[in-house]
From TrEMBL:
Role summary: Component of the general transcription and DNA repair factor IIH (TFIIH) core complex, which is involved in general and transcription-coupled nucleotide excision repair (NER) of damaged DNA and, when complexed to TFIIK, in RNA transcription by RNA polymerase II.
Primary localization: nucleus
Keyword entries, A-Z: DNA damage, DNA repair, Metal-binding, Nucleus, Transcription, Transcription regulation, Zinc, Zinc-finger
Organism in which the protein naturally occurs: Agrocybe pediades
Protein name: General transcription and DNA repair factor IIH
């Protein structure tokens, strides 16, 4: 039955007829439809194929932006995307900006039950831990003079997970065991921020105080007025940045905007990682002073000198002695140049005399943020 029209059309050389027959035969061949409605139906169908819902108009399919090359490979597209990302990174820091290279960051992880959602694979919680580890490694690589502490939010409390430390291994160890961090209960933004603020209150003014929040919940369970906490953070010059996994909350955006931090909502796994890694380079100091409110002292603080010591490294064969940081008998370590006490790791602050002890490669490494390499000319 369906082949009949086609056979006739093929025999007849008249083009008009063959087109007509072809059109009538098409819906019949699929076993549905009347000849009268065929045009309407076809039109409707093709339109429906392009756009089933209006929201699809603004929705670009990620697989449409990727084009295969002649050989059918995606290699060139992937390379193009990567090159574009690299170029964007190079274009950003063109001139020298005053930045804070001695950084102190408290990473606040949401450990509420909302983190068990599976909208990000495998779960928000597992993904967050994985990215947090990568973030910490990258952060210390770029900011060897910095220190990170970790605070968790769960069951309505702030929970200290890792003390402020300049040793990446120590920080990574604090979030290594996922069973200790099992999500439960409601998060409390205020409790966690207050805890982070407390651990940074003693820091000197030349170092930055930053909070990075990863927030997957849509609620917060606070004991008091969170705006008081926000004002206290502004006063203490603490910069809050927040990466939301679920959706934007007004208080979250306010926390970031008033303290001069960055706010972002992760759309997917890749975007989540991008948002986190945008916070790896040290923040420009200009933005921070502006957010403070432009008071007499806050406009542009004069650069002041700070004292640093370059330690003497003890050889592994040196006699055993106690270190001042852990009170352990060890042969290797570093000697403070001022008080000659022994510390295990640099960079650190000497526990005895308070001198900041750094090694010169660390200092040099931090310097490239202040004097960025000019972008290469593409040839
Ligand atoms: Zn020690
Ligand atoms: Zn010392």
């Amino acid at each position: 039955m369906p082949s009949q029209g086609i056979v006739i059309g093929a025999n007849d050389s008249d083009s008009d007829i063959s087109i007509d027959l072809e059109q009538t035969s098409r819906p019949r061949g699929k076993g549905k439809g009347k000849a009268n409605d065929k045009k309407k139906a076809d039109k409707g169908k093709s339109k429906a194929k392009e756009q089933a819902y209006t929201w699809e108009a603004s929705f670009t399919r990620s697989w449409d932006t990727v084009q295969e090359d002649e050989a059918g490979s995606l290699q060139t597209s992937v390379e193009d995307l990567m090159a574009r990302g690299r170029r964007r990174r190079l274009l950003a820091p063109a001139s020298a900006i005053r930045r804070t290279i001695i950084r102190h960051l408290v990473l606040i992880l949401d450990l509420s039950s909302a983190m068990m959602d599976r909208d990000m694979r495998p779960t928000r919680f597992d993904l967050m831990l994985q990215y947090a580890r990568e973030f910490i490694a990258e952060w210390f690589d770029q900011n060897p003079l910095g220190q990170i502490g970790v605070v968790g939010m769960r069951a309505g409390l702030g929970e200290r997970i890792g003390e402020m430390s300049g040793n990446p291994q120590e920080v990574l160890k604090s979030i290594a065991d996922r069973h200790k961090l099992e999500p439960t209960g409601e998060p409390s933004l205020q409790n966690a921020i207050e805890m982070a603020r407390g651990s940074m209150s003693h820091l000197p003014t030349h170092s930055s105080r930053e909070i990075l929040l990863i927030f997957g919940s849509l609620t917060t369970c606070d004991p008091g007025n969170i705006h008081d906490t926000l004002n206290a953070c502004v006063k203490d010059k603490i910069r809050i940045s927040l990466v939301a996994i679920a959706a934007e909350m007004k208080i979250c955006r306010e926390l970031c905007e008033q303290t001069g931090g960055q706010f972002g909502v992760a759309m997917n796994e890749g975007h989540f990682k991008d948002l986190l890694f945008e916070l790896v380079p040290p923040p420009a100091q200009r933005a921070m002073t502006r957010s403070v409110g432009g008071g007499a002292g806050g406009t542009n603080p004069a650069a002041d000198l700070m004292m640093m010591g370059f330690p003497t490294r003890l050889p592994d064969s040196s006699p055993l002695s106690l270190c001042v940081c852990h009170s352990e008998m060890k042969s290797q370590g570093f000697l403070c140049p001022r008080c000659k006490s022994k510390v295990c790791d640099v960079p650190t602050d000497c526990d005895i005399c308070g001198l900041m002890i750094v090694s010169s490669p660390h200092l040099a490494r931090s310097y490239h943020h202040l004097f960025p390499v000019s972008p290469y000319d593409a040839v």
